[in-house]
Design brief:
Length: about 200
Amino acid sequence: VTQLVNYTVTYLVVAGGAGGASAGGGAGGLIYNTYSVSAGQSYGITVGGGGSAGTSGVSGTNGANSAFSSIAVSVGGGYGTRTDSVGGNGGSGGGAGANGGSILAGGSGTAGQGNNGGSNGSTPAPYPAGGGGGAGATGGNGSGSTGGNGGAGATYTISGSSTTYAGGGGGGVYQAGTGGSGGAGGGGSGGTNAGS
């Protein structure tokens, strides 16, 4: 009689982060958990790619989903939007774009995987945009002449050392100012419009 043995594995699934534009892109959704696998059975792995960057007039694109078989599917990050638009929804939400007329909301994150993006800042120039959400924190709101910081990622030791994953991107500023810092765990920093 052959006895099959089950093993409990710890897994970390991180989806592709979104591309930013005026605002910071959201981090890919993150799932950390354990699962009992069966000896001799195969489990498919999908690694989602990152989204494409946009411009002040064109939003970035969402990241792609990642998966551990059908056991855990993490959602790609929500796009960082162009100016005058709300952030995209995703694993973590993208930030809201620079806007001269109203405060706009960041995109929504997926429950259990990420956090919301930040809103754009005060409406007078230089029009700061919001930061993308991260696995560990909401994206920062734009304020004054500074774009919102990207939300921090989450830290695990699954690789054998303490590593932070899935940070959100920093928001930009439409005119002269300071872009927001990327969130710990891989988020890129925001920029400013050249020549403004």
